[in-house]
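Researcher: Let's run the pair from yesterday's discussion. Sequence first, then tokens, for each.
Model: Starting with the first of the pair.
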Amino acid sequence: MRTLLNMGQISIVIPLYNKALYIKRAIDSILHQTNQDFEIIVIDDGSTDEGDKVVRAISDSRIRLVQQINQGECAARNKGIEEAKNNLIAFLDADDEWKPLFLETISRLSSSYPDAGAYATAYEMREPNSKIVKPRLKSIPSFPWEGIIPNYFEAALTSFPVWSSAVAIPKNVFNVVGGFPHGEKLGGDIDMWLRIALKYKIAYSTYPMAIYYKDALNRACNQHLNLNGYRIVRTIDEVLSTAGLDKSTQDILLEMQAVRIIQSAKQCVTAFRPDLAREHLKKCKTRRFILRKLFWQSISYLPESLIRVLIYLKHLVNKCFGL
């Protein structure tokens, strides 16, 4: 394991799994950054679509390709962290891209807030019809603003201010909080941001410096149903079992947990496993989202035929109104 780290440069980790159609776009967006002081580490996680050939065809000595058997996105990120030569590690998914000022913005945040545990920027979502959607940031000062997020837990309660393709983390932070949860197919990243926020401040820029492509094939969120619950639910249980948290932090963590439990219950219902939905909701303790909990609890008792009709109608409305 490397002990001598370059404190000024940035290591960029790209997990790659069957995204040959998009990986060049992602790498090109890095090569066109205003800040050119970086290395790129592409972790090929057992791809079968020759994405590795696309990477090898890009002639730049700063790019390293590391191949491993398929272990999942979290394991690929952890391998990238291990391989990184620099202390500051940025992450970019292979089907997304950065705007030219992303690394410059991250470097500025790092210089301004050297004790922070993560540096992140706002981002845009690009719909399949090319429509651009900007996620609504809650409990964060309005644009234009840069600084320390006043209360990450409140900000992340119903939205995602920190996203896996718009964040950089010092390598030493991983030594404290651990790596991404191995084997988690969904939600391993939001679990990581929570663990960091419990110990560090998070620096943020409201300038949208990354683009999330919702039309990309083979996205993890398109491939898996989270019927067993999110890792963050178990992490919050572990945190709440320890002493030292003030009452307000305990309350907001319970509400964060409730949101994820309700989301899992919703997925169970749409996968026609209402029994699992009810099992999840038994563990849901919430005051803010009690109506949402009761709604999905009620839906879980409907006959499967009626659930199928409701799902069909929902898809029809989404299609008609472009939701």
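Model: Moving on to the second of the pair.
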Amino acid sequence: MTAPTAGGASRATPPPPPAEDTSTGQLISQLTEQVSRLVRDEARLAQAEMTQKAKRLGVGAGLFGGAGLFGFLGLCVLVATAVLALDVVLPAWLAALIVAVVLFAVAGVLALIGKKDVQQGTPPVPTEAIASTKADIATVKENARR
């Protein structure tokens, strides 16, 4: 059994000759080889890191989806509970109608608020940053004329 190398290289490279015995061409060749090896190793490390992060992101997104589903189911049960509670004092059809009207009213209010926010967010252009940049350019032009 062979002992693993400390550097993790897949192939053995001969040790470089002492610096005082090496020519400039050899030094440049070694530099090129070491830089390319460093870039390949960094690319492999980045790829492994991104793969690991993507897996974690996928698992996290799946868990959030599951949490959203169970939250929705809990809300459905809560709505059914409200209908059953109103059924104690009102006919069942009237209890269901009242709960439905309240839910539609909440949906309408949320839709209006969402519409307002979407209108404020469109067009998706950084208008304030553009205006600030234009003001900066105008200031620089004005100061350059003086």
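Researcher: Give me one sentence on the second I can quote.
Model: The helical segments are 24-87, 92-121, 127-145.
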